[in-house]
Amino acid sequence: MNRALLLVLTILLVSAASAEPEKLRNEFVQRMVTEHGFDASELEALLDSAKVRQSILEAIARPAEKRLNWSEYRKIFLTRERIRGGLDYWKRNRETLERARETFGVPPEIIVAIVGVETRYGGFTGRYRVLDALSTLGFHYPPRATFFRGELEHFLLLSREEGVDPSEPLGSYAGAMGRPQFIPSSYRAYAVDFDGDRKRDIWQNDADVIGSVASYFAQHGWRSDEPVTQRVVDIGPEHEQLIAAGYKPHQTVAAFADAGVRSNPPLPSGLDAALVELETDEGSQHWLVLPNFYVITRYNRSKMYAMAVYQLADAIKRLHTQGQDD
Question: Tell me, what CATH number does 179's domain have?
């Protein structure tokens, strides 16, 4: 192939690549106008104001769950500061957390741990405009562009429904918002007004944050008074096949015991479970995980994330039960 032809082909490929986001955006605008009654010129102006952030594209390509092992990941969240912060958050919101338990059946320590893992109890809720994040990923990140355009659609709808200026909210590089880091579709489906002020404020209102997290867990099947997970002490010869089956519970604890997989202390034999392996600096850990563990993974589809939430919740609960500040 001569250089002139190669140059022409390169120009054509670059032009096509640069034209694709524009095509996707035009289709998106047209659908928002046709299906939801948005004003085309206003929406075009809003999207024109959105900035493509290279740092967002870099961040989504390197999530912590893929870069770190369990020992490294755990150190981020199981810190004295975050455990003590959870106890303080529990004390400040004691009545609301108890009301959430009564309403939704979700224990306070799980709600507190979610807010602690996500944003350090509201201390850091994100530095990107949600509009920038969702536009960048929806029009410039082909692996998941369809998903993020869907989230952009939800974001624009919730902005209209809640009377929020869509150019203002800040969030994560993936467009997650507020103290519990809800993506827009989760906000519209699960966020609640838990203090009766006719707003669903997950940025500043801890009552709405707590109620919304509890609502999310309840609607994803949280089982009151059931355990979450237990460390395995005997692994059995068939453990690799059992691990490969995934972390959605698929057979009973009794069936795992028959295969040589046992925890300490033992779990109720009739509960459904799955076997999870976590790589650490010292080797592999194995855990039997139950339906409530799987519910945590609906918030973030990572077994390390779910384990961090569980262990942080457990540490906060133990400190709370002791009734001490140290």
Answer: 1.10.8.350
